[in-house]
Design brief:
The structure holds two protein chains of two kinds. Chain A is 4% helix and 49% strand. Chain A is mainly beta. Chain A has a four-stranded antiparallel beta sheet, with no helix packed on it. In chain A, strand 22 and strand 23 form a beta hairpin. In chain B, helix 1 runs antiparallel to helix 2. Chain B is 59% helix and 0% strand. By secondary structure, chain B is an all-alpha fold. The chains are: A mainly beta, B mainly alpha. Chains A and B meet through loops of A and helix 3 of B.
């Protein structure tokens, strides 16, 4: 009897040693520590950091997309490194150097391919999401073989990737149904597209233009109609101010039936109706907006700013189009990310080396934790959203 | 570096320039060491305090780094390593920093950086920019 009992206890002990407690990843995320090439794995339910992973190279500009099961984060580093991080085992599952200078990436609709957008050599590279093996290389060639820097890469329905060519002033739509032979359609967008977004329904791609007063819109349901210019001449009548950091566009700009877009060289958000694509308002803000991100319910838009106004975050109430609060989370606020249903926002302050967690209802800080020069904050719910 | 280029422009022989810059840099390092030895807020040759230099290094790495990369290997803006700049004219780099460059994304920094500071940044860039730490 005694032996039997001991055996049972031993079996129990061995089993529990062999497997970590089971958990999902729906409340996990990654925070970039830009100056030291590390990421923190965080738990948004426990409001805590679970692990720090080093050895990701130059993360001075970095972005992350997630595998569709939410287990892996693909981290695109500035130096062309692409690192697949296992959020459950807290390890690097795979890492490759895929370019000399990179700006970000996307994951395909079916989750099978990860695409990186590169400055050097200018173009897009597509990898198998499981193995990170190269499946297609799309040089952004224009003007007799020059290579353009690529920006604004997003996934689109129909297993497409859409991206913009900064130097060439073009938007390209790549269909990767046959991944080794991408079918590419090219469109003239305008001068110096600096970033792009796809609307949450996956229908419209918009490129922001640095070199012109206006944005380029492509209806992916009707690409044959070509590029439509929206918000043309939005800056007319007022002096263009210096832009010390380029704004970042993503589908987070859309709240309800309106999109909130940073004006270039003007301290304003442009409000556009996503049914008619006509301007319906402007909101004066504290500086050059970098990110304008809607809370998931669309009731608020949180805005941060370029140098030298980057110690503030302003909150716009969309119902009244008014700023309801200016927060001061710390010096050099680089990024904001909402929890999946938006009850909290996590905000990174690079020069104060901390991340602040805000209650989005009361707009009060709930917690703060240390991170080394934190920049991007990425939560796994991006895995299920078009354009993330 | 600035001194050397000015001399070259005036037609001094390369040998003379080399000897002169060797003497010049030896003298300057003595001046620098002396300043450091006597004061914590060393205002060496440039009239820029040690604190301000630290702030400028951070500004270049972080804020110029938004486009040129924190390691200055380039991004939306061109690479700013010593190797990539060795054929550049310091005067034109200074002007670009202070007044920006039309038709590009380079903004003017004169609201935050004065002429002497821009000269110092150019000098540092051309010999390999110091680390932020």
């Amino acid at each position: 009897m005694r032996i039997k009992c001991c055996f049972a206890i031993l079996t129990l002990l061995l089993t529990s040693c062999a497997s970590a407690p089971m958990r999902g990843t729906g409340d996990l995320g990654l925070i970039i520590e830009r100056d030291v090439g590390r990421v923190q794995i965080v738990d948004t339910s426990a409001k805590t950091s679970l692990a720090t992973i080093a050895g990701l190279g130059d993360l001075s500009h970095a972005s992350v997309v997630f595998s569709r099961d939410g287990r892996y984060g693909y981290v695109f580093g500035r130096d062309g490194g692409l690192t697949k991080v296992d959020l459950l085992k807290h390890v690097i599952a795979k890492r490759i150097m895929q370019a000399g200078n990179s700006i970000g990436g996307a994951i395909s609709q079916n989750g099978r391919y990860v695409a990186a957008q590169n400055y050097t050599p200018g173009g897009v590279k597509i990898f198998d999401a499981l193995t990170l093996k190269l499946v297609a290389d799309i040089p952004a060639a224009y003007d007799n073989g020059k290579l353009s820097k690529v920006v604004g890469l997003v996934d689109a329905p129909g297993n497409q990737f859409v991206f913009s060519l900064f130097d060439a002033g073009e938007i390209w739509v790549a269909d990767i149904s046959e991944p080794s032979m991408p079918m590419i359609k090219k469109f003239k967008a305008g001068k110096q597209p600096y970033d792009g977004l796809i609307t949450p329904d996956g229908r419209h791609y918009i490129a922001g233009l640095f070199g012109e007063d206006g944005l380029a819109l492509l209806d992916l349901w009707h690409p044959e109609k070509g590029i439509q210019r929206i918000l043309n001449g939005y800056g007319q009548g007022s002096e263009k101010l210096p832009v010390y950091k380029m704004p970042h566009l993503r589908g987070w700009a859309v709240a309800g039936t309106r999109a909130y877009l940073p004006a270039i060289g003007h301290h304003e958000l442009l409000v556009v109706d996503t049914q008619t694509w006509q301007e319906v308002g402007r909101i004066p803000v504290a500086g050059q907006p970098v990110f304008a991100i809607a809370r998931p319910d669309g009731r608020q838009v949180w805005v941060n700013f370029a140098f030298p106004d980057n110690a503030q975050v302003q909150i716009v109430e969309t119902e009244t189009q008014q700023i309801v609060k200016t927060l001061r989370p710390g010096l050099a606020v680089l990024h904001m990310e909402f929890t999946p249903r938006g009850e909290e926002a996590w905000v990174s302050s690079r020069d104060d080396n901390h991340v602040t967690i805000y209650d989005t209802q009361t707009l009060q800080a709930l917690a703060e934790f240390k991170a080394s020069a934190p920049s991007g904050i990425f939560f796994t719910h991006r895995a299920t959203r078009i354009g993330f | 570096m600035l001194m050397t280029s000015t001399l070259t422009k005036r037609g001094a022989s390369p040998a003379f320039v080399m000897i002169f810059s060797t003497i010049f840099s030896s003298v300057m390092s003595v001046v620098f060491i002396t300043c450091v030895a006597f004061s914590n807020t060393a205002v060496a040759d440039t009239g820029i305090s040690h604190e301000r230099k630290t702030a400028l290094i951070k500004l270049v790495r972080n804020d110029c780094g938004s486009c040129h990369g924190m390691t200055l290997k380039g991004g939306l803006g061109p690479e700013l390593s010593a190797e990539s700049l060795h054929n550049s004219d310091p005067e034109s780099l200074r002007e670009t920093i202070l007044h920006g460059r039309t038709d590009t994304a380079m903004p003017p920094w004169s609201a935050f950086i004065n002429g002497a500071e821009a000269d110092w940044i150019v000098e540092q860039l051309m010999k390999g920019f110091p680390d932020a730490h």
